Structure prediction request, 337 residues.
Amino acid sequence: MANVLVTGASGFIGLHLVEALLRRGHRVRCLVRSASNVSALRELGVDLVAAEYDQQRTLEAAVSGAEVVYHLAGVTRTFLPQHFFQINGEGTARLAAACAAQPGPPRLILISSVAAAGPIPRGQVRVEADPPTPVSNYGRSKLAGEQAAERLAAHVPLTIIRPGIIFGPRDPAFVKILKTIRLLWLHPSPGFFPPALSYLHVEDLVELLLRVMDQGSCIPPAQNGKPGQGCYFAVAPEYPTYAQLGRIVRPMLARPIAPVLPVAAPIAWCIAAASECISRLRGQPEELGFDKIREALATSWACSGAAARRDLSFEPARPLRERLKETIDWYLKAGWL
Prediction:
């Protein structure tokens, strides 16, 4: 069994990963920020280390003794673009440096995002070797974090995971989409030509992350003629658009008639502007901002899972529709819907 450090462990994905690691008998330590809600982690009995990502010595102490580091911590929404880069870019660089400073550097598994890869032309499917073309500040900051870690690949065994849209039990973001359909009996969708999207259930993502620990390839320390090596998209083989997603889930929500409402791009930008203003007044950044609209109006986010199938023998345990039904049933039973 391994000594494992998990950053971002108090989040939706992090908590699922910690639970799975404990079930498999690993010794788990969690690096959390001082403002994090750690009540669920305390109940699991894991070791907690409080640190900010500008505290290099504390980071090095937290990493000390770890054989594997899962880096999930990051910022997904903020008022200031530079905040993305401070946490997702510079924070990742400092953690990678803390790993490199160890006498025996741990394996670093960096959980990034398909946003770092960027969209692909319609009708195509992106693979790991394709040059990245992020369109959002979030995506550019995640790419900056990848590149910072890659610069230390000669000193730290590094694997990068780029998940698509992750959903499942306890996800506070995905339930908002479902609430709109259930409460309003309609499904607004930005743009008249919505992009294909990549999805994955959180349990499938966790299974992939566990397999990477033992089987995944690493980023080469220098160009070796194999671009994309050591990087994996974490995606299901189905790529419904946001509009199609609404049509799939509406009968599961007992809303057989919930029309998709295409929202023209200019109107979508206006809604994002209003959301940005309201969120600033409230002092709480919201999901629907300019950055999210940039991604929503892109061409396609379809990414290939072939590398994970080849190297990790990974396939989602069940089809996307079944996973969506499982998730909705959980929300209904838990009273989230």
Q: What stands out?
A: The domain at 3-169+198-235+302-318 is CATH 3.40.50.720 (Rossmann fold).
